[in-house]
Specification:
The protein is an alpha+beta fold. 42% of the residues lie in helices and 15% in strands. The strands form 3 sheets. The chain has a 6-stranded antiparallel β-sheet, covered by helices on one side. A hairpin with a 3-residue loop joins strand 8 and strand 9. Helix 7 crosses helix 8, helix 8 packs across helix 22 and helix 15 packs across helix 18.
């Protein structure tokens, strides 16, 4: 796991003006063990790397690294877990001891398309000295980040936006097209960002960049895999067969993700996914691993009544006891509003509303004192139907739901007085009269963000008329498959995995995610829905497997995960919404005033929408005023 950055110009005779050491400094937190750079001319190229040593701890694993023929040079972030199998398959020399050196030689023999055979998480840049072409590559699930800027003649790339802006030497303008989605979802979908001209390398893609051209090819596409596995659906007849298949694949995936030359720890929230993962890691390591969890036990939390609601450490302790797994409990501090805003923008480099990055940040800080690697449970909710939006999807497509249309006629003032469940139903019923895909709408209501109607009301024209999504994007899929795709393509890639990477890598901690192994993804997509969801019971298969390890009271309970509550000071809200509307050129002043007074009447219902505006406001004035 590392930090990478670089630049190349295709203008003959031009020299790039890059402060290499400032870029290294911007990435040092990702790779404190070593840093290096390479500079080549004709064309002028700069490759930068900061290393976190996990596989092959010797200097031979340092980067940038050339292939043995010196045709290719690479800067690489991530891990390819099957590098030993690839080394054996292609008869590569014994002296190749790092996964980086192995994948370079595989590419030398088979071309960049050989990434189809890589099992792991990775993002890398590869320069072909013969073709004078730059390749930017990102793994099948979008686990590892990579951003780039290409104007037709010059290309810049980096693991994080902050380092990319340092490379560019200027901050690109705001990208207005994505504003509606940010307000609705709390994140921006790949390949776009809130910065004009800065893009995410798309998941499962190879971008080949030459003068005047950036050509993208996909080596892995979850939609194609879903269609393919639906055609070749496994003939699993009952839950027992499904459990057998799952356990066989899970053991292989966990074993693969334990490949490292350093000790590996476990993130244990006490929920089903991390508990099941902990059981398998414990089995594979012979009980030599150790778990970490987050607690909200500080007296500061009790003042707000959040301690019992959010603190799941007692469940994590019980799980660890049942598994005979050592566990360390870390207390999450209560930080001020100013610290929260500062930390959120520092972690992401742009607005993102998911505050669970905060506990991830603090638990990673403590884990990194002893470990470089930890195992996390991300991906299971997406693959095995763990989110409540699967339940809402079935409700919204039910023929009787259309009678909810009359709820749209409730005046705004009356809506405020409705009990929460009815208030939520009123907002959910808006989809009957809008054109946004159902999955986006459900997400905005479930996450208590702005609906498409509310977004149009708060954004100034012309921003309120912009549409980033294709209304027909899910038409060829069943409603539940469409919700799966939304969760996997949108929520997981652009929020969950980003949060894990940024929060953990601020402290040079690598988070590995076995549920997102290709074999597990393809098993999950092949399963009929009834093995994932029975009525309103979500993650049916996961829960049945977990009963092998834990008692029912720990399996069938409501969970929170590493959530972090938003507690906003009223004076701060007033400052951002009324007194210093830094987003005055984007958001309607009267809509901000209305949001402020609604928040005063009901903080719980509006705090997340207010927080989304505050982050956008602060990011905007820092960059553009």
């Amino acid at each position: 796991m590392c930090g990478i950055a670089g630049a190349v110009t295709f203008i003959e005779g031009k020299l790039l003006d890059v402060n290499i050491y400032r870029v290294i400094e911007a990435l040092k937190h990702r790779g404190p063990d070593n840093s290096g750079f390479l500079e080549m001319k004709q064309p002028h190229l700069i490759f930068i790397h900061t290393r976190l040593s996990i596989i092959d701890l010797t200097p031979s694993g340092n980067q940038p690294m050339f292939s043995r023929s010196r045709r290719y040079v690479i800067v690489y972030n991530g891990e390819v877990y099957n590098y030993r199998e690839l080394k054996k398959k292609y008869g590569l020399p014994e002296e190749l001891t790092s996964d980086t050196s192995v994948i370079l030689e595989v590419i030398e023999r088979r071309g960049v398309e050989a990434v189809r055979n890589f099992r792991g998480m990775f993002a890398f840049a590869l320069w072909d000295t013969r073709e004078k072409a730059l390749y930017l590559v990102r793994d099948h699930a979008g686990i590892k980040p990579l951003y780039y800027y290409f104007d037709g003649y010059n290309c810049f790339f980096a693991s994080e936006v902050r380092a990319l802006i340092e490379l560019l030497g200027f901050c690109p303008g705001m990208n207005p097209v994505v504003l509606p989605q940010y307000l609705m979802c709390g994140f921006v979908s790949e390949p776009f960002t809130l910065y004009n001209g800065i893009y995410k390398v798309s998941t499962g893609s190879i971008i080949k960049i030459t003068r005047n051209e950036a050509r993208i090819d996909f080596f892995y596409n979850i939609r194609e895999k879903l269609i393919e596995t639906r055609r070749k659906r496994k003939s699993i007849r009952n839950i027992s067969e499904a459990i057998y298949e799952f356990e066989k694949i899970m053991k292989e995936c966990v074993s693969r993700h334990l490949v490292a030359d350093v000790p590996v720890s476990i993130l244990l929230s006490g929920g089903n996914d991390s508990s099941l993962l902990s059981a398998y890691v414990n089995e594979c390591t012979g009980g030599k691993s150790r778990a970490f969890t987050m607690a909200f036990r500080d007296h500061s939390w009790k003042r707000y009544g959040f301690s019992e609601k959010y603190d799941e450490s007692r469940y994590a302790e019980k799980v660890a006891q049942h598994l005979s797994l050592p566990i360390t409990i870390i207390d999450c501090p209560l930080i001020t509003n100013d610290e929260l805003i500062e930390l959120m923008l520092d972690i992401y480099s742009y607005p993102c509303v998911d505050t669970s990055a905060i506990p991830y940040f603090f638990i990673s800080k403590e884990i990194s004192r002893e470990y470089k690697v930890t195992i996390g449970g991300d991906g299971a909710d997406e693959l095995f139907f763990g989110y409540n939006n699967f339940v809402w999807t079935e409700r919204c497509i039910h023929p009787l739901f259309k009678f909810s249309l009359f709820l749209n006629f409730f005046p705004g003032g009356i809506r405020e007085l409705l009990p929460y469940k009815l208030y939520k139903l009123v907002r959910m019923a808006e989809f009957l009269t809008n054109s946004v895909p159902l999955q986006f709408h459900i997400h905005s209501v479930e996450e208590e963000l702005f609906t498409v109607k509310e977004t149009a009301e708060i954004l100034l024209s012309p921003y309120s008329n912009l549409k980033q999504w294709d209304e027909n994007r899910y038409n060829s899929f069943s409603p539940l498959d469409a919700t799966f795709l939304f969760n996997f393509e949108e929520w997981l890639r652009n929020d969950m995995l980003v949060k894990c990477d940024r929060a953990a890598m601020r402290h040079a901690l690598e988070i590995r995610v076995p549920y997102l192994d290709i074999d597990m993804i393809e098993f999950a997509t092949s399963l009929p829905h009834e093995f994932k969801k029975r009525g309103n019971l979500l993650k049916y298969l996961i829960k049945n497997v977990l009963l092998r390890f834990l008692p029912a009271d720990l399996v069938f309970r409501k969970k929170w995960g590493f959530a972090y509550p938003i507690i906003l000071d009223k004076n701060l809200v007033k400052k951002y919404l009324l007194e210093e509307p830094g987003t005055v050129s984007i958001l309607r002043k009267e809509a901000l005033e209305a949001l402020y007074y609604r928040y005063l009447r009901n903080p719980e219902r509006y705090k997340k929408r207010v927080f989304a505006v505050i982050l956008l406001h602060e990011w905007f004035i820092r960059n553009y005023r």
